[in-house]
Amino acid sequence: MNSIIYNLGRVVIVVIQWLPLGLVARMGRMGGGLVFYLDARHRRVALKNLGMCFGHEKSRTEIATIARENFRRIGENYVCLIKTSAMGFEELKPHLEFVGFEKLPRPDEETGSQNIIAAIGHFGNFELYARIQDIRPDLQGATTYRALKQPGINRLMQSLRGTNGCRFFERKTESGCLRELMSRGGVIIGLLVDQHSTGLRAPFLGHDCSTNLAAAVLALRYDCKLFSIICHRVSLAKWQLEVGERIQTHANGSARPSKEIMRDVNLALETAIRRDPANWFWVHRRWKN
User: Is residue 285 part of a domain?
Assistant: First the structure.
């Protein structure tokens, strides 16, 4: 069964990667729009989350419009990531803009190559975060992932990743390899920080929720610079990766508490969500009790 799933998936991937990116994006939007009407469970989750966060400032019609567009964006992004994973950087350039990357530190004679933690989230085509080292070849890109239960699908996902040299580490089984890589310096690690986790309870979009402390803990433990990086959708099949202001991990010569650091991270993500609400992953149950 795993072989059948994998081989069927490979056929779909080959077909999508053969098509023009613009057509792929339109197909994804159509599919996402259809799923909005067919997938009642995730539609309810999205509407509930949006209503909780924006119900005091937006009408039910506006919230429903954002939810529909959100499903279209998710469809567009998921199908486009299959296409963009096979695109060389020169081919991808017209579709991807980099903003604020001058804020990231560069190696120097005194400090050498520093590690950077990028607090990222499910914004836009979030697999494009791995393309950072295309414009910063002095940095080794890395991130973590959670292996899927279905081996065939997990194998398909891994076949789409790391084609440009970014390193992917399974969270449960490869943490030691990640620590070894960080000990060398010159690594930029993208960590998804917008999912439910058994960590800190902190406000996010006006409501208390569980927040993963990993970005703050690793930044403190390995003396990394911490930034937020957001993938904004500019237009059909066009995205912008934007580096936010540095999030301070120390104050007055002492390490800040991880809870305070992650509250600043949450604020950076909130700003990006309010800028374009449909660009975030509203179908996730972010505010579990």
Answer: no
Asked whether the whole model's pTM tops 0.85, one would answer yes
**To which H or E segment does residue 200 belong?**
strand 200-204
Is 178 exposed, middle or buried, given 0-12, 13-18 or 19+ CB atoms closer than 10 A?
Answer: buried
Q: What is the pLDDT of residues 80-89, one digit of tens each?
A: 999 998 898 9
| Number of domains making up the chain | 1
Assigned domain for 286 exists: no
Rounded Cα distance, 217 and 222, in Å? 9
Cβ atoms of residues 211 and 193 within 8 Å:
yes
Q: What is the spatial distance between Cα 190 and Cα 229, in angstroms, rounded to a whole number?
A: 9
Alpha carbons 50 and 193: distance in angstroms, whole number: 19
Task: Map tokens 């009642």 to a residue.
Answer: 40
d(C-alpha 33, C-alpha 73), whole Å: 9
Number of C-beta neighbours around residue 180 at 10 A:
10
Residue 20 falls inside a structural domain: yes
Burial of 254 (C-beta count, 10 Å sphere; 0-12/13-18/19+): exposed
Q: Which domain does 128 fall in, by range?
A: 2-279
Taking a C-beta distance cutoff of 8 angstroms, is the pair 5, 153 a contact?
yes
pLDDT digit string (tens) for 176-204? 888 888 888 889 999 999 987 766 788 89
